[in-house]
UniProtKB/TrEMBL annotation:
Enzyme Commission (EC) number: 5.4.2.7
InterPro entries in the cross-refs: Alkaline_phosphatase_core_sf, DeoB, Metalloenzyme, Phosphopentomutase_DeoB_cap_sf
Gene Ontology cellular component annotations, sorted alphabetically: cytosol
Cofactor dependency: Mn(2+)
Family: Belongs to the phosphopentomutase family.
GO biological process: 2-deoxyribose 1-phosphate catabolic process; metabolic compound salvage; nucleotide metabolic process
Molecular-function annotations in GO: magnesium ion binding; manganese ion binding; phosphopentomutase activity
Location (main, coarse): cytoplasm
Function: Isomerase that catalyzes the conversion of deoxy-ribose 1-phosphate (dRib-1-P) and ribose 1-phosphate (Rib-1-P) to deoxy-ribose 5-phosphate (dRib-5-P) and ribose 5-phosphate (Rib-5-P), respectively.
Metalloenzyme domain: residues covered: 2-395
Family matches, as CDD domains: PPM (cd16009)
Protein name: Phosphopentomutase
Length: 407
């Protein structure tokens, strides 16, 4: 039975990419800087001491990162008994955003430039916002700037609840984000507003509109809910997910995968919120999965709860939790199954600002007869998509070099 399980640790980079300078990210290193902070005793909130990821280390995380940066991260070394193939990959896509990383990983790099709202304030053209407001019957909006999604709630959440005006904000990514209170504004109203924005953004080539619902009564307890929804553009070509589902296989999305691929190539969608629930759902779907199935999970908390929030201890805690659950997954894999652990970009929690960082991602591949050892530097995330295509005996993808032989 052939199945591929993809664990996408959102934002878990393993060191600055060769082109990081162009992004202002020279020296960024999500994994390395977390490990260093832990070793320094600077990440003891809810956890203690050096970063302990024994299962990821056996899958080759420490080695992959060492090949990326030139040195083992603090607390990692070559004494571990490896069980998998490990590599690190650079990104061909022009952006360091979530859709680019995911699409490229599935064999379709984003070689065109997204549109961006690069002005830090007065970010959106009034020609755009006027149209959105008119269609939604709204008299105005708040925000209109680059912001951290939690900080802007502290600043504008109350005014939003008083005035009923939505909060529009963006970031270094190609995004148009709308934050509204779930009860006072209404979740359906927020989703409708996002659909309008998605249509009106057509000329701007913006990768995603993101609905950011929140609840709570004031700045002290405002919290974003699990009802986030991403309205993504469609990938510019068929990904390996499309190819497998076109060929009669199953592609199971766990978490926000379906949204990220604009629902293309997905045959089953499973919702779950939070690391624990996402891991539980993944295990359950792997148990249910038959031959020629991809089970694909995005673990968004690494990015949205810890990376963007610059919460080093939280990121370390989440990694250690994730690691502690890996044996449950390894125990239910069949001999032929392929497990891939990777990331879509970096989001170094020690880095200035709150944006992603241009980094190599880990490529940890286990099972499917793969020899234990190094896969080296992969020229594109698309090597993973190409490998999956070859594993399932699908037509080759246009991009990427396979590291796995067809079986
Ligand atoms: O600060 P929050 O709202 O989490 O935003 C983050 O999430 C968005 C999507 O990845 C990006 O725009 C990034 O800035
Ligand atoms: Mn991401
Ligand atoms: Mn992000």
């Amino acid at each position: 039975m052939k199945r591929t399980i993809i664990m996408m640790l959102d934002s878990f980079g393993v060191g600055a990419a060769g082109d990081a300078a162009a992004f202002g990210d020279t020296g960024s290193d999500t994994f390395g800087h977390i490990a260093q902070a832990c070793a320094n005793g600077e990440a003891n909130d809810g956890r203690e001491g050096p970063l302990k990821l024994p299962n990821l280390a056996r899958l080759g995380l420490g080695h992959a990162a060492m090949e990326s940066t030139g040195a083992f991260a603090a607390g990692f070394d070559d004494k571990v008994e490896l069980i998998g193939a490990y590599g690190h990959a650079q990104e061909l896509s022009t952006g360091k955003d979530t859709p680019s990383g995911h699409w490229e990983m599935a064999g379709v790099p984003v070689l065109f430039d997204w549109g961006y709202f690069s002005d830090l304030t007065e970010s959106f053209p009034s020609a755009l916002t006027d149209k959105i407001l008119a269609r939604a019957g709204l008299s105005g909006f708040l925000g209109n700037c680059h912001a951290s999604g939690t900080t802007i709630l502290e600043q504008l959440g109350e005014e939003h609840m008083r005035s009923g005006l939505p909060i529009f904000y963006t970031s270094a990514d190609s995004v148009f984000q709308i934050a509204c209170h779930e009860q006072s504004f209404g979740l359906d109203n927020l989703y409708r507003l996002c659909e309008i924005a998605r249509e009106e953004l057509a000329p701007y080539n913006i990768g995603r509109v993101i609905a950011r619902p929140f609840d709570g009564t004031g700045p002290a307890d405002f919290a974003r809910t699990g009802n986030r929804r991403d309205y993504s553009l469609t990938p510019p070509a068929k990904t390996v997910l499309d190819k497998l589902s076109d060929a009669g296989g199953e592609v199971v999305s766990v978490g926000k995968i379906a949204d990220i691929y604009a629902h293309c190539g997905i045959t089953k969608k499973v919702k779950a919120n939070g690391l624990e629930a996402l891991f539980d759902a993944t295990l359950e779907q792997v148990k249910l999965a038959g031959d020629r199935t991809i089970v694909f999970t995005n673990f968004v908390d690494f990015d949205s709860h810890y990376g963007h929030r610059r919460d080093v201890a939280g990121y370390a805690r989440a990694l250690e939790y994730f690691d502690s659950r890996l044996p449950e997954l390894l125990a239910i894999l069949g001999k032929e199954d392929l497990l891939l652990l990777t990331a879509d970009h970096g989001c170094d929690p020690t880095w200035p600002g709150t944006d992603h960082t241009r980094e190599h991602v880990p490529v940890l591949a286990y099972g499917a007869g793969l020899a234990v050892g190094s896969l080296g530097l992969r020229q594109s995330f698309a090597d993973m998509g190409q490998s999956i295509a070859s594993y399932f005996g699908l037509e080759p993808m246009e991009y990427g070099e396979s590291f796995i032989a067809g079986m």
